[in-house]
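Help needed: design a sequence for this.
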């Protein structure tokens, strides 16, 4: 076997390993999210997204400026989630619910931060 051929075999093996590792990694994330009740389904409505956000702890960069969680999904789910997120910011009723959630999460974060400083 030529050196170049051997090198190509190693590259193919490495790519296969990386692909399998990636699949296993996302399967583990999927199981963890399901167990934690933070799974968002493809057909999730804006209210479902609000419910998931409500179950999370938020960090803030300043008053009322949340650090939003990262959403990892496939392209099909991305379009549906994007539609729901767009509706959260354009529908006046949903926007008000999102603003209320941010206010509540900010109070929770402020309380946690204050408790940390008291413990120091």
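Sure. Designed sequence:
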């Amino acid at each position: 076997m030529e050196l170049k051929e051997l090198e190509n075999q190693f590259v193919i093996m490495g790519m296969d390993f990386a692909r399998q590792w990636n699949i296993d990694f996302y399967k583990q994330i999927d199981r963890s999210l399901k167990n934690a009740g933070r799974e968002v389904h493809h057909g999730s409505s804006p209210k479902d997204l609000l419910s998931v956000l409500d179950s999370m702890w938020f960090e803030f960069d300043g008053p009322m400026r949340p650090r939003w969680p990262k959403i990892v999904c496939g392209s099909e789910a991305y379009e549906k989630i994007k539609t729901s997120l767009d509706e959260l910011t354009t529908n006046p009723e949903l926007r008000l619910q999102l603003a209320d959630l941010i206010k509540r999460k900010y109070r929770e974060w402020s309380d946690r931060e204050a408790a940390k400083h008291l413990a120091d």
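The chain has four helices and two strands.
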